[in-house]
Amino acid sequence: MKILKFFLTTIVLSTASLANAAINVFTCEPEWAALAREIGADRVRVSTAISADQDPHQVQARPSLISAVRQADLVFCTGAELEVGWLPVLLARSANPRVQSAPGLLYAADQVSLIEQSSSTDRAHGDVHAAGNPHMHLDPHRITMVAKALTERLATLDPQGKAYYHQHLVDFLQRWQAAIEKWESRASHLKDTEVVVHHRSFSYLLNWLGMRAVAEMEPKPGLPPTPKHLGEILSKVEKENIGLILFTSFNGSQGANWLAKRSGACAVQLPFSNEKSLFSLYDELIEILVSKQGECL
Ligand SMILES: [Zn+2]
């Protein structure tokens, strides 16, 4: 009887803690879903607007996404105008007062400094990232800063979980710091490697690893490559002996393959996000770059 009572109490307690504790987190991009699961673990329920191979610049404000935002306690997105074409629609149509502003709305880009801020003239010429490059999830040091801000925000929304979130942050940062050291050591030969990119998707990654993008296939961020522009890049690739042309799934491989075919350089598709694990995302990025550098330079 005693044992039965113990089990019953345990079941009641765990059901109660789940029902009380879970914070609904809606993330715009998969990388933030992965981070929210690291810090929030069992106290959060996480959904994401897009999968890892979808383009975060262009998302349909579907009814399922509106419904997810309606149920959210926290909307966690990149910001810096990355979602300017769709997140305002989701927020407005959800009519959820909890997530229209802080503390229920958190932008990762607001927690860090941004590179590649453009002038108003660039904006007029079609630059979709005039506020600065929003793709900061590919700098592991900026991820650290966002993880800390997310921890504080979860603790504000769910004060009973404060110690829990802090404990998960400490654990995450220990593993993350060790992984950064491993990645930096593995990628040390990539330093000073010059590459061509499709979009400015990898600027933070390249800066971190000491690599350099010498050309972008998009004439301005967000504008499709033109034959004239690709022709100019081809001469550069040939003249400067560039070995790697980087793109990601939603860019399409057409421009990269066109350049690779004519120059002998390698068109290299890199992952852009990973909903399950930021560690896997970086592992994969570094392994592809290291192996392709060996093959293609
Ligand atoms: Zn972009």
Short structural summary:
This protein is 49% helix and 11% strand.
Describe what this molecule looks like in 3D.
The protein has 297 residues and is an alpha/beta fold. It has 2 domains: 164 residues, Rossmann fold (3-Layer(aba) Sandwich); 110 residues, 3-Layer(aba) Sandwich (Rossmann fold), CATH 3.40.50.1980. The protein is 49% helix and 11% strand. The protein is built from 11 helices and 8 strands. A 4-stranded parallel β-sheet has the order 2-1-3-4, covered by helices on one side. About 5% of the residues have low confidence. The structure holds zinc ion. The site of zinc ion has 6 residues, from loops.
Please tell me what the overall shape is.
globular
CATH topology assignment of the largest domain: Rossmann fold
Biggest sheet: strands, sense, closure? 4 strands, parallel
> Helix segment count?
11
Q: Approximately how much beta-strand content do the residues carry?
A: 5-15%
Could you give the order of strands across the largest sheet? 2-1-3-4
The average pLDDT score comes to 92
Number of separate strands: 8
Order of helices and strands: HEHEHEHEHHHEHEHEHEH
> For the terminal residues, how far apart are their CA atoms?
72 Å
> Unreliable segments (pLDDT under 50, ≥5 consecutive)?
6-19
Features:
binds zinc ion; Rossmann fold; 4-stranded parallel β-sheet; 297 residues; 2 domains; 8 strands; alpha/beta; single chain
How would the blueprint of this fold be written?
Blueprint: H1 2-21, E1 23-27, H2 30-40, E2 44-48, H3 63-70, E3 74-77, H4 87-94, E4 105-107, H5 120-124, H6 140-157, H7 162-186, E5 194-197, H8 203-209, E6 212-216, H9 227-240, E7 244-247, H10 254-263, E8 266-269, H11 278-296
Parallel strand pairs: 1-2, 1-3, 3-4, 5-6, 5-7, 7-8
The structure holds zinc ion.
